[in-house]
């Protein structure tokens, strides 16, 4: 079976002396990726870490790995990037949710089917996610909300964008040339 390597977290600081470690998450599904018995790999190596337990503490995920018995072992592993191999067709548990790897590379099209660019990355912001769309005129950031991205069709390899002036170009934008007005930029 073909798989895709996905980053799910990074080992942070030790918590206590018994081998618990804070994990900086890179997944929207920590309960799924860090469930007891889950086997993670340290990126770029064959080293595997098995989740013994996971719990939330003050807004952070604390994980105990079977192979990291104490604070010294955790400190030596600090900064390690944790990855898992997943089926490329695996979908998130929530409907209308997507993994970044599923969106990157999709064509961006208008409702009439006109191709206007390609998704180059997903930018995660506190308020909402943004799709970075590479167009002929450069990269544009589009809020990943239903009003602007009404449909995602993974099978067809495309995302549909609302045909809104200024979304992918500077049409309708009030651009002022500071030199023309004598103002300093």
Automatic annotation (TrEMBL):
Residues 7-86 form the RimM N-terminal domain. Residues 102-163 form the Ribosome maturation factor RimM PRC barrel domain. It comes from the Bacteria. InterPro entries: PRC_barrel-like_sf, PRC_RimM, RimM, RimM_N, RimM_N_sf, Transl_B-barrel_sf. It is found in: Cytoplasm. Keywords: Chaperone, Cytoplasm, Ribosome biogenesis, rRNA processing. It holds the Pfam family PRC_RimM. NCBIfam families: 16S_RimM. An accessory protein needed during the final step in the assembly of 30S ribosomal subunit, possibly for assembly of the head region. Essential for efficient processing of 16S rRNA. May be needed both before and after RbfA during the maturation of 16S rRNA. It has affinity for free ribosomal 30S subunits but not for 70S ribosomes. Binds ribosomal protein uS19. Belongs to the RimM family. The PRC barrel domain binds ribosomal protein uS19. HAMAP family: Ribosome_mat_RimM. This is Ribosome maturation factor RimM. It comes from Luteococcus peritonei. The gene is rimM.
């Amino acid at each position: 079976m073909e798989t895709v390597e996905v980053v799910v977290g990074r080992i942070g600081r030790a918590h206590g002396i018994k081998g618990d470690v804070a994990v900086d998450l890179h997944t929207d599904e920590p309960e799924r990726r860090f469930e007891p018995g889950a086997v993670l790999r340290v990126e770029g190596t064959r080293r595997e870490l098995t989740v013994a337990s996971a719990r939330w503490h003050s807004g952070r995920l604390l994980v105990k790995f079977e192979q990291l018995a104490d604070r010294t072992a955790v400190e030596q592993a600090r900064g390690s990037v944790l990855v898992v191999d997943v089926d490329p067709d695996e979908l998130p548990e929530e409907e209308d949710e997507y993994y970044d790897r599923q969106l990157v590379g999709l064509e961006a099209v208008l409702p009439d089917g006109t191709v206007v660019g390609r998704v180059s990355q997903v930018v995660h912001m506190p308020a909402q996610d943004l799709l970075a769309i590479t167009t002929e005129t450069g990269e544009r950031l589009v809020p990943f909300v239903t009003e602007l991205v009404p449909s995602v069709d993974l099978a067809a390899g495309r995302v549909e964008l609302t045909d809104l002036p200024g979304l992918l170009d500077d049409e309708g934008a009030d651009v002022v040339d500071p030199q023309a007005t004598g103002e300093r930029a």
